[in-house]
Amino acid sequence: MSTDINAIELTVNGVPYPVAIDTSRNLSGVLRNEIGLTGTKEGCDDCECGACMVLLDGQPINSCSYLAVQAQGREITTVEGLADGDELHPLQRNILATGGVQCGFCTPGMLMSAQALLDRNPDPSLEDIKIGLSGNLCRCTGYARILAAVDATAVELRGTSDS
Amino acid sequence: MAITDLPTFVRADGPDKVTGSGRYTADMTLTGMLAAKFRYAGVSHARITKLDVSAAKAIPGVFAVITADDVPDVRYSYGIADRTLFAKGVVRYDGEVLAAVAAISPEVAQRAVDAIVVEYDELPIVTDLEAAVADDSPLVHDDLDGYAITGDTPHHGNVGTHSSIEMGDPDAAMAAAHTVVSSRFVADASHAVPIEPRAVIAQWEGDKVTIWTSTQVPFDARNGVCETLEMPTTKVRVIVPHVGGGFGGKCGPHYEPHIAALARAAKRPCKLVFSRWEEFTAPDRRREGMIVDVTTGLDAEGNIVARTGELLLDNGAYMADSSFFAQAAAMHVAGPYTIPNVRIDAQLVYTNHQPSGSVRAPTAPQGCWAVESHTDELAAAIGMDPLDFRRRNIVRTGDVGPTGQTYEEIGLDRCLDMAAESAGWGTTELPDDEAFGISIGWWPSFHMPAGAYMKMHADGKVQVITGANECGTGSVMTLRMLAADELGLDQTDVELVYQDTAAAPDGPGASGSMTLFNHGRAVEKAAKEIAGQLRELAATKLEASAADIVLADGAASVAGTPTKSVPIVELAEAAAEGELLLGSGSTDELEWPEIKGSSCLGEQGFSSFMAPQFICHVARVRLDKDTGVARVLEVHAVHDSGTILNPVAAHGQVEGGILMGIGQALTEGTQYDETGSQRNAALLEYKLQTIADAPEIHTQFVEIHTPNAGPKGAKGLAEAPNVPTAGAISNAIAALIGRPVRQLPMTAERVWSTIAEEVTA
Ligand code: FES
Ligand code: FES
Questions:
Q1: N or C: which end of chain B has fewer CB atoms below 10 A?
Q2: Ligand 1 atom at minimum distance from A65 CA
Q3: Fold observed for domain A5-81
Q4: What is the pLDDT of residues B58-115, one digit of tens each?
Q5: Is A92:A150 a contact under the CB 8 Å cutoff?
């Protein structure tokens, strides 16, 4: 089997990581195995479930279907980068408070999609939130509490930025 | 109730889950760990004439390749011990495991899997249920009687379990009935689809193996390893990291024995992580397809006087835990109605499909969908409103059900009234393309032995060591509350130690809605033991009688004299220097409800329902008649699940169960090609509901402190919401198009065809 190993640098949550990887490797695999950030989940390997959602320069992507080498020179944000030290991000706090976490396997991807949504639209309607999260499957919750958490976070963040 | 009104009950494992620090099985790495991969049969029925793994073994980086020859010759399963870990002689479904490979990387393991040579003599494939029960059908298993058979498991030909419920004289009653309606409904198989595909890691140290696995049932997984690898219980330890959903799909032992055997052969830890395709096609966990023929007779007033039914259930190739399915399905087709004359005959039929196993309320959503659709046909036949028809015929407190069980305090009538009221049944004006549909359902609670240990430390903090399993339900978290309540502490003073078979006493884990019901009772008992010890200590200290000591708000006080009080932490500190504060508890046997006047063949514990849960759902559906696309706008759900201890978890279970039910109703059907292989084993083809599909859900609970039930009168809860959802949607669609869609899922195409039939008819 031919291998094509490249030495690259990936910047994840503001930290640069030098890695030597085969060019065929997907980003989720490299984040999880080489870099050791297992918060990003894999529920399929084919852009079907959204569990692997991360932000690339602020844009949500399914990292299972994205080549790691293509992420070079760009800012990657994973669920591990959401909290501010020990302080949970309002999205994290609210999704716990509403009961939007059950098994938690969809949660990291859900949070990243929600973060991307709120970044581009700080005042989303419920319909906007539904569209923003429609690439993330959750089998446990029935979504209502996730929707409520994102809505509550939007309100909360607008309150902070207004004041 | 708006979400913000609920009391806050944040799950203890929540911070791990939202920060990404929590570990699921696939997130773990051990030193020297190898990648495990399986070679699957790839054909649905064939005799193996050659299986050669030598080329695979020769590939550099391959540490072990094992087959049936490398493990003890043990046949296992519940009811009929019909299967082996690795295929032996004959393969009976395409996802059956032929061999396991351990290699330095997943890529090398895959190359080795591809290098395994297998040759077959093809055998006739059995996939059609009605053909399978014909006398001349080819057999999936040549000789069932050659297997060890346990329990009341009547079987013959391709029929694995035959079960029947009989009461009264249905033939005479049917002949005398004023109106008789016969219906036929066919449900496709479907899948549990947890978002986490399963993963297993095994590591040996000497003659002991530790297995990390994404199971819902750690003790079953351990027992499966012990049975198939012929090992003593004490040498196998199963640890369960966070589990990314189960819904029954991760019940039963699955691949823990395979990976343990592989790791032993490879002399290295091995890790298996399933792809989505494997998760769909390989495990013995698929919701069974079902054919329901049901006939009901009514008297002139619309009372049900007789019901007969014939059911065929697709068992697939092997018995997973399915031996009770025939009887369970029969109960759902009988339904929670007062019917004096009943005969339901159900057969669980072997085919060359993937095996069926318990998925969230096994047999119930399909059986309920069929009989509740039939119920609306009955109401229509006599021109009665479906709600009134049900009000007339449901079981109420003190009534006798279709197997002769008399119900103690139950709340089905209130479920019906409250759901109708919530929806505005009969009062809300709906546009022409919208309708309400109503469905009721039921599901038992189950007693199983479970234990708990407990220790209070010198700092007054408590550890509960429980065999419970948290796959998202939150009921494990409720155990902290039960312990805290008994001990007069705050929940945050209590930590759970769970999901480790070496540490905790046995129990059913997260299966059958049994966590709170059984593990909860064990935890209460263990806590009572420590509470008793605290009372004794406090009584001595406060010079009072132990019986007068009240534990509350972190203190032990004398009843009526709150000034005579000592902080619990002080008692704990003293005990740490003397007799330690330790508790243990095991569930007391609950009384199995009696049945009178009926006979049940194939008795598998489902002829009466312990602490039965009752449900009514009303769905508001909009239908585009041009395309057949149905959209669920609202679901009004009312449940009698006894006392509700953790409202956030309870609402979450109902909401998640309803979404799963909508999926089963409209989009989730397992499709097979003519060779018996699943055609849609991917999430783009097997469509789950997304957030954009989610309706408004209004949930209420009829809280009845139920006798002979779980802690504080609680019943089970997690499976019930799945039961009546498809039935309610079906009845809304039927209300719009004048007849029910007779196949599940009721896809746009099937709805459209049903409309077209009406036009041509
Ligand atoms: S793992 Fe990437 S979309 Fe499912
Ligand atoms: S919480 Fe389990 S999949 Fe969303």
A1: C
A2: 2
A3: Ubiquitin-like (UB roll) (3.10.20)
A4: 999 999 999 999 999 999 999 999 999 999 999 999 999 999 999 999 999 999 999 9
A5: no
CATH class, domain B448-586, is alpha beta
* B229-283 residue pLDDT tens: 999 999 999 999 999 999 999 999 999 999 999 999 999 999 999 999 999 999 9
Task: Name the residue of chain B whose CA is nearest to A88's CA.
Answer: B19
Ligand 2 neighbourhood includes A105 CB (under 6 angstroms): yes
Q: What is the mean pLDDT of residues B659-687?
A: 96
Structure tokens that stand for B564 in this block: 């005579």
The reply to whether A49 touches chain B by the CB within 8 Å rule is: yes
Same CATH topology for B25-123+198-273 and B448-586: the answer is no
The pair of structure tokens assigned to B538 is 């406090």
Smallest CA–CA distance from B242 into chain A, residue = A103
CATH label, B290-446+593-760, candidates 3.40.50.2300, 3.30.1330.10, 3.30.365.10, 3.10.20.740: 3.30.365.10
Residue extents of the structural domains in chain A:
5-81, 90-162
- With CB atoms and an 8 Å threshold, state whether B196 touches A103: yes
Contact B120, B46 (CB under 8 A): yes
To test the contact with chain A by mutation, choose from B8, B18, B105, B473 the residue with the greatest count of A C-beta atoms within 10 A, namely B18
Other Cβ atoms closer than 10 A to B408: 15
The string of pLDDT tens digits covering residues A67-122 is 999 999 999 999 999 999 989 999 999 999 999 999 999 999 999 999 999 999 99
pLDDT score recorded for residue B158: 98
Q: What percent of chain B has pLDDT over 90?
A: 93
Domain B25-123+198-273: assigned CATH number:
3.90.1170.50
Q: Report the share of chain B in percent with pLDDT over 70.
A: 98
Evaluate whether B717 touches B641 at the Cβ level (below 8 Å): yes
Task: Supply φ then ψ for residue A54, to 5 degrees.
Answer: -135, 170
Residue A158 Cα, ligand 1 centroid: separation in angstroms? 31
Token readout for B102 is: 């351990």
* CA within 13 Å, CB half, B104: 6
- Whether A2 has a pLDDT exceeding 70, the answer reads no
Percent of chain A with pLDDT over 90: 91
* A142 near B CB under 8 A: yes
- Evaluate if residue A48 carries a pLDDT over 70: yes
Listed by number, the residues of chain B in 72-131 with a beta carbon closer than 8 Å to a beta carbon of chain A are 107, 111
Backbone phi and psi for residue B643, each to the nearest 5 degrees, phi listed first: -70, 140
Under 8 Å CB-to-CB from A155, ≥6 apart: which residues? Answer: none
CA distance B590 to chain A (A): 30
As a whole number, mean pLDDT of residues B130-159 equals: 96
State whether B652 and A102 contact (CB < 8 Å): yes
**In Å, how far are B440, B484, B703, B728 from B706, measured between CA atoms?**
20, 22, 9, 26
Could you read off the pLDDT of B715-751 as tens digits, one per residue? 999 999 999 999 999 999 999 999 999 999 999 999 9
Cβ of A46 and B276 within 8 Å? Answer: yes
* Nearest by CB: A144 against B197, B657, B697: B697
**CA-wise closest residue to B243 among A98, A104, A125:** A104
Nearest Cβ partner of A38 from B23, B275, B649? B23
Indicate the helix (H) or strand (E) that contains B376: helix B364-381
Q: Is A90-162 in CATH node 1.10.3210.10? A: no
pLDDT for residue B4 is more than 50 = no
Does this model's pTM top 0.90? My answer is yes
Closest listed residue to residue B323, CA positions, set B133, B96, B448, B159: B159
How far does the centroid of ligand 1 lie from the alpha carbon of residue A53, in Å?
Answer: 7
pLDDT at B562: 86
Judge whether A82 is closer than 8 Å to chain B, CB to CB: yes
ipTM of the complex: 0.97
